[in-house]
Amino acid sequence: MAWIQIRLNSTSEKAESISDFLEELGSVSVTFMDSQDTPIFEPLPGETRLWGNTDVIALFDAETDMQPILQALQHSGLLAQDFAYKIEQIEDKDWEREWMDNFHPMRFGRRLWICPSWREVPDQNAVNVMLDPGLAFGTGTHPTTALCLEWLDGLDLKGKTLIDFGCGSGILAIAALKLGAKQAIGIDIDPQAILASRNNAEANGVADRLQLFLSEAKPADLKADVVVANILAGPLKELYPVIGSLVKSEGLLCLSGILETQAASVCETYAQSFRLEPVAVREEWCRITGKVK
């Protein structure tokens, strides 16, 4: 089936209203894309997190007359009268196959591979985590996740416990278990993340060693040898008392989801309790690691 796509430049404040209006006009799907290519992270429950400069992209049946659509948008009050837009025909593709073809096995460090289930494992003797893209953030493709995976690959996790704070897909906890950790605990605010982590753990044969908690339900005395938190700089600083308290005496901490420009302020916060190592940087994103003082 052929499609027509309209792309509108908007703002984060207006994007959802425009999306609702386009669906009323007959759009079969609406997506948001950052005009400045800024990554988006897993939203809070019930939240749709948008960018400061957002493109709204709507898909219509190819037979749709787009002129009435444009006129309706002009009179909606949601856009300026001379709003920027682009209309283009989209070739008919097997979109599921197109999506699947974009994901390949990825290597992190010396031993660890993250592999989609439909791909052949490159090295049967490596540590292979089978993980498909899904609802929760974390497939290894983003620099923040890659930095954490490489750090875990370099540790001796045998007999250790790990907490994945903001576990998303469970990728870090599952990788730690397959790298030799005795037990892992995943914590997240989003029930979808808990479900995704459980399903991924079952697919990798480690569900019996992974405990999962919503944030408000985690045990008060919870501690681990290694704590990883791949979220965002703001929450990392705000949750310093919580995250810091999860690390055992002489335990290790790994923080990511931090822009290079934000690293100094996060380091300043955590240096109160941790001996921090040099910041690792990749594509403007950072990883901060350290040990309890």
Automatic annotation (TrEMBL):
Transmembrane domains' residue ranges: none
Top enzyme class: transferase
Keywords: Cytoplasm, Methyltransferase, Ribonucleoprotein, Ribosomal protein, S-adenosyl-L-methionine, Transferase
Subcellular localization(s) per the UniProt record: Cytoplasm
Record: residues binding S-adenosyl-L-methionine: 145, 166, 188, 230
Keyword Cytoplasm: yes
Recorded catalytic activity of this chain's protein: L-lysyl-[protein] + 3 S-adenosyl-L-methionine = N(6),N(6),N(6)-trimethyl-L-lysyl-[protein] + 3 S-adenosyl-L-homocysteine + 3 H(+)
Predominant localisation class: cytoplasm
EC assignment: 2.1.1.-
GO cellular component: cytosol; ribosome
Any one of the GO BP annotations: methylation
GO MF: protein-lysine N-methyltransferase activity
Protein purpose: Methylates ribosomal protein L11.
UniProt family annotation: Belongs to the methyltransferase superfamily. PrmA family.
Annotated protein name in UniProt: Ribosomal protein L11 methyltransferase
Natural source organism: Mesocricetibacter intestinalis
Protein encoded by which gene: prmA
